[in-house]
Write a structure and sequence with these properties.
By secondary structure, the chain is mostly beta strands. The chain is 6% helix and 38% strand. It is built from one helix and six strands; from the N terminus they run E-E-E-E-H-E-E. A six-stranded antiparallel beta sheet has the order 1-2-5-6-3-4, with helices on one face. The protein starts with 10 loop residues before the first strand and ends with a strand. 24% of the residues are buried.
């Protein structure tokens, strides 16, 4: 398959093995989430290995303040309000070797579906 010249790939790979796929684009020229932005997101978290959902809900936080796991923040950087991403986070950028018992086992890779509802 060929992509249009100049089109951004739908899946991007970042440092540390983190990757994301844009499932729904936000409006052209929409507000972008950057470090220091206050964001409101709807999310659903699943274990990569089994697909078991461990959490879902709405979060309000300031991006870049480590209010959430590192991989979650990295995967949101540059999102446009209204955009939906599937973010795959390796365990080293999630809860680490120890996990977050009892819901997240040790060395668990995670998959989050995230919709950016608001940016300020």
């Amino acid at each position: 398959p060929h992509e249009k010249k100049g089109a951004e790939p739908r899946e991007k790979h970042l440092l540390g093995g983190l990757k994301y796929e844009i499932e729904k684009t936000g409006p052209s020229g929409g507000r972008k989430a950057t470090n220091g932005s206050n964001v409101e997101v709807f999310y659903e978290g699943r274990l990569s290995k089994t697909g078991q959902r461990f959490d879902k809900g709405t979060l309000d936080f300031e991006l870049g303040t480590r209010a959430v796991i590192k991989g979650f923040e990295m995967g949101m950087e540059g999102m446009v309000q209204g955009e939906k991403r599937k973010i795959t986070i390796p365990w080293k950028l999630a809860y680490g070797a120890g996990g977050n018992p009892p819901t997240i086992p040790p060395r668990a890779d995670l998959v989050f579906t995230v919709t950016l509802n608001a940016v300020s």
